[in-house]
Amino acid sequence: MSRVGEVKRSTRETDIQVSLELDGEGTTDIDTPIGFFSHMLNLLGKHAGFTLSVHASGDIEVDGHHLVEDTGIALGQAFHKALGDKKGIQRYGSFLLPMDEALARVVLDISGRPFLSWKVPDFKGSVGHLEFELLKEFWMGFINHARLTYHVDILRGSNLHHIAEAIFKASAKALRTATTIDPRFSGRVPSTKGSI
What we know:
With about 200 residues, this protein is of the alpha+beta class. The chain has helices spanning about 35-50, 65-85, 135-145, 160-180; strands at about 5-10, 15-20, 30, 50-60, 90-100, 100-110, 115-120, 125, 130, 150-155. It has a single domain, classed as 2-Layer Sandwich (Ribosomal Protein S5, domain 2). The chain starts with a strand and ends in a 17-residue tail after the last helix.
């Protein structure tokens, strides 16, 4: 069974196309007008082992907010579609990831109940042309539409590039674990309720 989700999202502000295959090979095709954001999406697909294509354009002459948030929304919708009936998935995932001086912890549940706990210092500034505060907007969009319970903790770190990279890589690893099919639960949804 192919676990693929494809989404096209067009508004007056952005035009986003996403294709996501959960059982991929870590290959990516990323094209956004914000270089550092493209770098983060590339890391996400690569380290999750997903096949990920994201083509996004938008009104970045205003700022990057609409593009980043809408990409998160479209990616979350594609992720939700790719999961299908969720039968046999591990459901839970966590990862503790170092990136030089930065240390990120991501813990998640494919719960069907969107929730984000974002314990990241309120840093001001940009990495390349991406405002650091937009990282939360991306993950909010993704989590709300993928319908995940998500906890992100920065345990230490001072370099914004390293912190951002640690969050995306830890997220990739945790998502990979949670979406992996466990043959012991084949054909069953991992919930006592019988649905997620």
